[in-house]
Predict the structure.
Amino acid sequence: MINYIIRRLLIMPILLIGITILIFGMLSLLTPYERAALYVTDIPKRQGAIEEIIEKYGLDDPIHIQYWNWMVGAKDPDTGEIKGGVLRGNLGWSKVGKSTVVEVIGRRLPASAELALWSAPPLIGLAIWMGIRAAVNQNKFVDQILRILAIAGWSVPTFVFGLLLLLYFYSDLGWFAPGRLSIGMNEIVQSDAFVNYTNMHTIDAILNLRFDVFVEAVKHLVLPVVTLSVVSWAFLLRITRTSMLDTLRQDYITTARSKGLQERKVVRRHAVPNALIPVITVGGLTLISLFNGVVITETIFNIHGMGSFLAQAATALDVVSVLGVTLFSSTVLVVGNLVVDVLYGIVDPRIRLD
Amino acid sequence: MTLRYVLSKLIKNPTAVIGLVLLLGFIILAVGAPQFAPVPENSRDPFMIPRDGFRSEPQGPSEDHIMGTTEGQYDIWYGVVWGSRTAFRIGIVITLFTTLIGVLIGSISAYFGGWIDEVLMRITEIFQAFPFLLTAITLTSVLQAVYGRGDQGFTIWTAKILAFLTFGHSLFEDINPIQLSIITGMIAIIIFGWMTIARVTRGNILAVKNFEYALAARTIGARDSRILFRHLLPNAIFPVLVIASMNIGSYVLTFAALSFLGLGAQVGYADWGQMISFARNWISSLADYSHIIMYPGTVILLFVLSWNLVGDALRDILDPRLRGSN
């Protein structure tokens, strides 16, 4: 067990270094002028200023030196101050966000995290439950319906689905509006009486005991949460079904049945726990698809989160911001996947042995 | 495991048949595009959707425009029809390259094993560590910044080869900016889209690597490349190719998402994702202009669905664990 965890832990730095190399590879396609945003916030409007900055931070040095500077920071030869440096938590200056990339991420993250938090548990629960139902009723009516729903679910483009939801539930029926809060509620949240602990409106509302704000925030979350969940839901459903079918074919299930156990008990006690083990491995993939979905979902529903920031920065060709966000999200993903892998090792003794 | 075996299984599967029929429909639509939506005489590029005026407000379906017009009076029917050509072109070229890269890396990794395998698989893992759409967006915007500069270094040749394959564009002329922005999206998807194919190929080669015929070939002194390409690949590659070809749907979906965000195809190009992106400006009145999302949205859903229906059935047929059941 310890061996397994150590092995996983050793792979993580390799992945992280690989990620930084790839990101830096993309950065190095840019001109030194564009890369200057990694170290300075503004280029003074006088002659020779750009050349000075390029010289100062070695933006035309050989690539490995630049990589090193980008990772640990470059020393300003005049003031001795160290600028930049990914490892120091410095991702450069965002032209679109008009502050450092790290500040923008800090500002934008709560909205995205709230969205993911409300999406993941219901979607995982629902998908697993439906997957089990489909497998138990293999090739029967329920299975066929769920199969079609699942295939439709991962074929429908997120942006089409989200816009259709807006068409019916906002434009037509007027039930749910885009954005995070209505203007009136936004004023309450911004006021001094309301303490923003996490900047996730639903959680803050509960902590402030403002249930009107809570209801309002939830109402704004319904459509984006559904939009974000659909693809991952369909995917998880199919995985659960396959794994459950595999398990139901095992000998010990036949044994359980032949000793006269009720089918319900066979499924619940014997099949489901084992069938769910492989489902954990795709937990990481679910995380990935949430990250992907957030970009489109936030753009459609006008939520000022990290995803919509990425889309904005990308269309404005603010490459330093874009790469910063990507570096941040992939690091989160790698750590998330590590947690999933370790969990997998704990649940499944077969993994530990080899 | 021959093509005939797979096909015979496929046509017995009702959902796969629906998928195949839909696909056939799309092929007819794409091939017959000039008949279904004639190109206006004054058009310079048939892939640019003709406009009927410049008013911003979308117009509902009428006699002139059977699916109505979207913002800026672009004809939706024309875009839907010619968009099918765009989808096939983009999807096929991307699939070609991802499969090529994936098969190459996967087979080398499996055949040589040892440290080569270790290194290649770590690299694959690194590419997989990124969220796909996020990096596709990122790389597209990087490439657009690079190509937008005008001083075109070695990277332009990748773009030129892709432009040649996708649009039949001459290798020795400059690519026009409209095609170039599509190419940037395609390159991004290719670079971050080959990993699954590499892993599947690797797994399949590993499975056949130690069979007697491979051993026999080695004993009579065949070269590595001969064993790999003449003996192993033909036996292991077939399921990979079939499954890889089904990726066309998901690549088109990703590209549509890029276009929707304003990164792939430019405004006015016959591309489904780009057409839907107009709807973003009409959110509060979408109920009045439902046609601007319904028609292109349905088409792209059906396109992706048809690939997934066939692909899903194929995966079941080719999965050795499921074979023989039922």
About this structure: The radius of gyration of chain A is 25 Å. Residues 211-248 of chain A form the longest helix (38 residues).
